[in-house]
Amino acid sequence: MKAGHRLVLFAASALGIAWVYCAGALNMPAWGQYRGPYGDAIAHLAVYQRHATDTVNAVTYDYRGFDTLGEEFILFSAVTGVMLLLRPEPGRPEAKKGKSSGNPASFRDRATLSETVQVFTTAIFGFSVIFGIYMATHGQLTPGGGFQGGVILAAAPMLLYIAENTDAFRRIVSHPLVEFLEGTGAAGYALIGVAGLAMGTAFLTNVIPLGTTGDVFSSGTIAAISACVGVEVAAGFTLVIFEYLREILSREKNEEP
Amino acid sequence: MTAIPGVGLLALIAVSALALVRTDDVTCQTIALSYYGLLLALMFFLFRAPDVALAQITVGAIALPLMVMLAITRMKHREATRRKEKEGK
Fold first, then answer.
1. Does residue A1 lie within any of the structural domains?
2. Residue A135: domain span
3. pLDDT tens across A161-197, in order?
4. Closest Cα of chain B to A198: distance in Å?
5. Is residue A29 one of the residues assigned to a domain?
């Protein structure tokens, strides 16, 4: 294809996209003018019906909890897929020990890490863990929730890796409990749903007592499901991180004196 | 009002998106992607969607760049190992 033809093709498609985009943008509701009836209805009902002050989480973990269950299992199967694809191959260098000089693939340059980075990342590790737990357990009160808290929790060990505390990092991410927690988190969500069936109502009905609005232990299943999702997401991401870095970690372990 | 910071932020996002696409080195691009995700989160926060902003920070600024970075690290490691094996023979 000649350059001239390519330009004509680009101009035609750019004009088409610009036209569709402008038509869409001009037809948008004005800033702050919400059209649908559901948002306002939910915003008025959520605190009264579910004792949850964060309406978004009342929707995700209760009103449309079944969708979120599906999303949770999307993540679960994605993590399983990554683990399956990245499983250690027999005969890869991982098995060979003590046969290396220097690590050219090391992501970090040992000589140039500043002490500031090391001290600062180690210091905020504890803060990140606390913040992740707070985020996962306060989803029913303030913006946040299990998913966000879980990712923060899973990212915390990476700070140790950046701070070159590889030993502690390896001990955390390769712990056998991580795998167990991932399964427990995913199963916990489904079991909370089944509890509704056992008590004679529909799947994922909010069967736990709702408590006082504004308390940490309020809003019934919303808080419980949020915590389960937090555990599942944190463990799932940790597993993926470990699977990606497994070879490099074992290589570094062999090299240490 | 939120109009002026909103427009400024949207312009910044547009510029960052262009810069992100124009970055050549993959590692630099990943860091730029993280920055871009953070800007999007700021936009969601400005437009009064704090829940979406938090999800955007965790996914767009932490999880996605982290996964890309891990994949790059692993690929580099594999390449280096393979090269060393060849040299050894």
1. no
2. 40-98+113-255
3. 888 888 888 888 888 899 999 999 999 999 999 988 8
4. 32
5. no
CA atoms within 13 A on the CB side of A40: 6
Q: Within a domain: residue A216?
A: yes
Q: Is residue B73 pLDDT above 50, yes or no?
A: yes
ipTM for the assembly: 0.84
| A160 inside 8 A of chain B by CB | no
Counting other chains too, the contacts that A209-218 makes at CB distance below 8 Å and 24 or more residues apart are: A210/A50, A210/A51, A211/A51, A212/A51, A213/A47, A213/A51, A213/A52, A213/A53, A214/A53, A214/A141, A216/A137, A216/A138, A216/A141, A218/A51, A218/A52, A218/A140, A218/A141
Give A56's contacts in chain B (Cβ within 8 Å): 51
pLDDT (0 to 100) of residue B36? 94
Largest CA-CA distance found in chain B, in angstroms, rounded: 69
pLDDT at A245 over 70: yes
Question: Number of structural domains, chain A?
Answer: 1
Is the whole-model pTM more than 0.95?
no
| Shortest distance, CA A136 to any CA of chain B (angstroms) | 12
Match 């372990």 to its residue by tokens. Answer: A253
Residue contact B59–A151, C-beta within 8 A: yes
